Amino acid sequence: MSKENLFNEEAIAKLKELAEDIDFVMMGTKLSSLPPHLIPMSTKDVDGDGCVWFLSSSESEHNQNINKDHNVQLIYSKPDNMSFLTVFGQAVIYRDKSVLERYYKSADDAWFDGVDDPNLTAIKVIPKEAQYWDTENGKFISLLKMGMGAITGDEPDLGEHGDLNIPLSN
After folding, report:
1. Residues linked to residue 120 through DSSP beta bridges, in sequence order
2. Angle at CA 168, nearest 5°, toward 105 and 160?
């Protein structure tokens, strides 16, 4: 696996590609305690600044944790494609109606009483550090390449990994 660090727009594009393709993420809060609090979340968007957006309840444990400590860890995993992403960042909770309307979809009715639900919040994660692992061909092709490498003695190109260097945003 080759190492390729990405910067600025390229880094944001890779983060967006992986986060939106994988969609579900484990969000870790209360990082200074063991064990941290982990919960599955669905990614709503990765905006043009590389910030990752979610919807959440103001009464949730992870919202309460974010109110005390803004540090969060996002862990994305799609083993079938051998795609992985981890993001460490600062979370900010929004209640602004225009923000909620931007991210709320009818599927969210399963968790909330519409966009006017008084407990509805949006969480914006501002990346501070991010790393990715990605194979362009998926698991099956990677296994074939490993097998061919074992036969030929050549080191197979299994994809890339590296740091995503995203300019700090607000």
Report:
1. 57
2. 80
- The answer to whether the CB of 160 falls within 8 A of the CB of 134 is yes
Contact 131, 86 (CB under 8 A): yes
Q: Where are the alpha helices (DSSP H) in the chain?
A: 8-22, 61-68, 97-103, 138-152
pLDDT digits (tens, 9 = 90+) for 84-138: 999 999 999 999 999 999 999 999 999 999 999 999 999 999 999 999 998 865 4
Are 166 and 50 within 8 A, CB to CB? yes
CA nearest 127: which of 93, 99, 167? 167
What's the predicted TM-score (pTM) here? Answer: 0.85
- Cα separation, 111 vs 117, in Å, equals 10
Find tokens 């944001």 and name the residue. 12
d(CA 100, CA 91): 16
Give the per-residue pLDDT at 44.
Answer: 97
